[in-house]
Amino acid sequence: MVNQTMENKVAIVTGSASGIGRAAALRLARSGAKLGLVDLKEENAANVQKEIENEGGQAIVLDTDVSNPQEVEASIKEVVDKWGRLDFVFANAGINGRVAPIEDLTAEDWDQTLTTNLKSTFLTVKYSIPHMKDKGGSIAITSSINGNRTFSSFGMSAYSSSKAGQMAFGKMAALELAEYHIRVNIICPGAIQTNIGENTHPDEKNLKKVKIPVEHPEGSQPLEHGPGSPEQVADLIYFLASEQSSHITGTELFIDGAESLL
């Protein structure tokens, strides 16, 4: 374990089986937190659990469809029943969905992306609140630079709309929950080396009719000339979970190596 600054604290991470979620779960566990690993990919989440336990930490896996209210409520309750409290929630689960021009998107494509990304954030926060009101805590939401600072990802209107919605929801929640000392912040990653591409379905043929050539410097991220790592995002999540960020709420934090400033 790296340190014990979150000893006896309990955290939930959705989308914890891979990428940013996995890195955040490991970072929090190494700081002493007990982890509820929420993901549909139960086998992969079990591997994260083993990593945590091999390093002396504690974690449980919760096979959960984050768009299903009953499953989300039950999973959060299971974590609280096991460890008696809930201090930090990372609403991270999401997909890119179908990438296509607006006229080629189906209503089903739109609903799938908005449900998986935005509705799941609402449900995760909603069912966490009753368990955090007495002692306070922190919530972080994974949004994106897309839909908040950049609008050049052609074909991603559904994704960008869901990410803009998460930003608005996070700010509303921050104000509403301030009296309970529950902080809510929104992270906006740029390109990060993850496997979210598995949930991306580009319509290459139709995208050609809406794409406008955009030239970027080498690597498109001026700071490092390449995608960031999940571990870099995990350090930000740890900061938001800890008391080091005790006076920060309702804030968007861009973590993109200046990508969105081009």
Tell me what the structure shows.
By secondary structure, the chain is α/β, with parallel strands linked by helices. It has a single domain (10-256), classed as Rossmann fold (3-Layer(aba) Sandwich). 39% of the residues lie in helices and 17% in strands. Helix 1 packs across helix 7 (230-241), helix 3 packs parallel to helix 4 (107-132) and helix 4 (107-132) packs parallel to helix 5. The longest helix is centred in the middle third of the chain and has 26 residues, at 107-132. It starts with 9 loop residues before the first strand and ends in a 7-residue tail after the last strand. The model has no long low-confidence stretch (mean pLDDT 92).
Keywords for this structure?
7 helices, Rossmann fold, 17% strand, 262 residues, seven-stranded parallel sheet, two-stranded parallel ribbon, alpha/beta, 39% helix
CATH first level: which class? Alpha Beta
Instruction: Give the spatial strand order of the biggest sheet.
Output: 3-2-1-4-6-7-9
The CATH superfamily is NAD(P)-binding Rossmann-like Domain
Helix % is 25-40%
The number of domains is: 1
CATH topology description: Rossmann fold
Question: Helix count, per DSSP?
Answer: 7
Low-confidence sequence ranges: none
Give the total of beta strands: 9
Strand content: 15-25%
Provide a short characterization of the protein structure:
The protein has 262 residues and is of the alpha/beta class. 39% of the residues lie in helices and 17% in strands.
